[in-house]
Design brief:
With 200 residues, the protein is of the alpha+beta class. The protein has helices at residues 16-21, 87-95, 128-150, 157-164, 168-195, and strands at 11-13, 24-27, 36-39, 45-46, 48-62, 65-71, 77-82, 100-110, 116-125. The strands form two sheets. It has a five-stranded mixed beta barrel with strand order 5-6-7-9-8.
């Protein structure tokens, strides 16, 4: 039995379309308890994610399992769940009254149907200002990931091309993520300016 220990992975910000399109999960090594990662099409591996959006629906499937759907800035959704080992997040999903704006931190996973999902460990309400800050950072992170992946400057650059392709279709996919990021940043800036407009 291995005695290898692993540090907790940082939570990465990611927009819903890039997270939804991610379907390749892998471990960092063959060691027992090695972290599991989800490979984003934008070219970065993530173990934990931090997202913001509107919790639009919740539900339960058993006494120790709850789920939710969070709508991101693009109008596309994240799926999340919490089981018996995520009691705090599960309780939030049970008592929440959608719609409510939330921040969610959790592990990125691929479920049995091959779809990406967030195993939520922490869910909390956020303000509009918190949300705007998250959008700004997530947009910049996404654009930077695309740049470094296209330049071949990350350890996952080759893997992401093997998994998601390296032709025109993949280039269009990256362009979609880039445009989404730019639109989200512009919309957030417009909202900030409107909120501070003395004539509003």
């Amino acid at each position: 039995m291995s005695s290898q220990t692993y540090r907790r992975q940082p939570a990465k910000r990611v927009f819903a379309p890039a997270f939804r399109d991610a379907n390749h999960q892998f471990t960092s090594s063959d060691e027992e308890n090695a972290p599991q990662f989800l490979l984003l099409p934008t070219g970065e591996k993530v173990n934990r994610v931090h997202i913001c959006g509107t919790l639009i629906e919740t539900g339960t499937e058993s006494d120790d399992f709850a789920w939710g759907t969070v709508e991101g800035p693009s109008g596309e959704n994240y799926s999340l769940n919490a089981g018996r080992f995520q009691e705090a997040a599960q309780q939030v999903l049970r008592i929440a009254e959608p719609p409510i704006m939330v921040a969610v931190t959790g592990k990125a996973r691929v479920n049995n149907n091959g779809y990406s999902t967030i195993q939520a460990t922490h869910i909390s309400p956020v303000t509009d200002a918190d949300y705007d800050i998250w959008v700004k950072h997530t947009g910049r992170d996404t654009i930077n990931r695309i740049k470094t992946t296209l330049a071949g400057d990350t350890p996952e650059s080759d893997l992401v091309r093997d998994v998601y392709g390296d032709g025109d279709r993949y280039s269009e996919q990256l362009k979609k993520y880039r445009d989404l990021s730019l639109n989200a940043l512009n919309n957030t800036l417009d909202e900030i300016l409107a909120a501070t407009d003395p004539d509003d």
